[in-house]
Amino acid sequence: MGTTIEGKDVRKLIIACDAGMGSSVMLAGQLRKALKKQQVEVKHTPVGSIPADADVVVCHSGLAERARRGAPDAVVVPFDVYIGDPAIDGVVKAIKDGGVVGG
Whole domain around residue 52: which residue ranges? Predict the structure, then answer.
């Protein structure tokens, strides 16, 4: 199971959701915009359908265990709030500026 990855090595970032309220779709859009200059594909998927080639999965903390089971080779980054969560900000910073995602 992956626990960390260098930001420069992230090629596929998944926003995994379950509730279907739209917050994670908005988050995916924000991350696409924030990472548009990096060569990172940002996709939104249900937590039960995470692609096998995902490098990083960002999901609400309540879904983290399901995400880890569904994507054992990906780094799972749980967060608590959709806007301004330090975990999400840390992923963006590591990808843009270098650094480690996960841990």
Answer: 4-102
